[in-house]
Amino acid sequence: MSTDSPDLLRSRYGAPRRDRRIGRRGWIALVAAASLLAAAFAVWVLGGQQRQPTFKDVGFQVLSEARATADFDLTKHPDDVVTCAVQALNEEYAVVGWTEVTVGALPEEQLHEGRTSSHRAELRTTNLATTAVVDSCWIDERGGAA
């Protein structure tokens, strides 16, 4: 039989573990922090998307083996300078023409619904194009020429 004292057992095996469960205050703080982070993330995502320009291809015309045009609508914040990459494609979807169109601030009479404007891009092509489309648009941080 052993008559080990609690001090001897504690020194040999270590102190018993304390209860490490999160209390009610801890859960409230954790939920509040998670909610705050989720709200901040939502504001960041939605705020960034509202400022991004959007485009819609409206039409195109193949003028010759060396020229084509692309018509598109651009929706952007009125103060932004936006550059759009426009490309002409052949029947194999290879790029046969490419240009950039920069759009700055426009007079109110050129806007539809306050933020949308219509544009035509002329492209020179290396071969006969079968279509001309906008590839992408972005806010030009350099504020290029309009």
What does this protein look like?
The protein has 146 residues and is an alpha+beta fold. The protein has two domains: 16-51; 54-139, Immunoglobulin-like, CATH 2.60.40. It contains two helices and six strands; from the N terminus they run ααββββββ. The protein has helices at residues 6-13, 24-51, and strands at residues 54-64, 67-75, 82-89, 95-103, 116-124, 131-139. Strands 1-2-5 form a three-stranded antiparallel β-sheet, with no helix packed on it. A three-stranded antiparallel β-sheet has the order 4-3-6, with no helix packed on it. β1 (54-64) and β2 (67-75) form a beta hairpin. It starts with 5 loop residues before the first helix and ends in a 7-residue tail after the last strand.
In CATH, the topology of the largest domain is named Immunoglobulin-like
Q: Give me the secondary-structure category.
A: alpha+beta
Evaluate the radius of gyration: 31 Å
**Secondary-structure element string:** HHEEEEEE
Give the CATH class of the largest domain: Mainly Beta
| Count of all domains | 2
Q: What percentage of the residues does DSSP assign to strands (E)? A: 35-45%
Straight-line N-to-C gap: 95 Å
**How would you sum up the major sheet?**
3 strands, antiparallel
Number of helices: 2
Number of strand elements: 6
Low-confidence stretches: none
**CATH architecture assignment of the largest domain:** Sandwich
Q: What is the subunit arrangement here? A: single chain
Keywords: Membrane, Transmembrane, Transmembrane helix
Transmembrane segments: 27-47
Protein name: DUF4307 domain-containing protein
Organism: Kocuria flava
